[in-house]
Amino acid sequence: MVTPQPRGCTNFKLRQLLRRVSLVYDHAMAECGLKITQYSLLTHVDRLGPITQADLARAMAMDSSTLSRNLKPLQSAGWIAVRAGGDARSNALALTAAGRSKRGEAQALWKKAQLQLNETVGVDDVIALHALIDRMSEALANNTHDNRSAA
Question: Domains in the chain, start-ordered, CATH in brackets?
Answer without folding.
Answer: 11-145 (1.10.10.10)
